[in-house]
Amino acid sequence: MSINQQTEILNSLLQIMHDSVSTSYDSLECVFDYYKDSDDGSLSIGSKFAYIDKDNVNYALLNDPDYRVNELIIKLHDLMVTHTGGSWKEFTLSLDKHGKAHTKFIYDEN
User: Fold this and answer.
1) Structure confidence at residue 35 (pLDDT)
2) Lower CB density within 10 Å: C or N end of the chain?
3) Domains of the chain
4) Contact 88, 79 (CB under 8 A)
């Protein structure tokens, strides 16, 4: 996996997050969940999105009518598994008040 592919996916997710807020904000944060059933291979992908404005946390749905988030999460997960062999189950993507993006990946302990 090239770092460029990962960066493009994360930038696309950040754009969807930004486009999901119709007011001003100080920061954005979204927790994405990824679960693949080992028996039947079915996938479950979820998100919990919030934007922060003046210390107020506002939860909202991602504006994703074309279901791009699911495609992007699957692609990011597959690329990272191929590259590192590690399978994350959750990650947080945030944009701070200075416009800097941050990620935190949580991996399965197995």
Assistant:
1) 93
2) C
3) 3-107 (3.30.500.20)
4) no
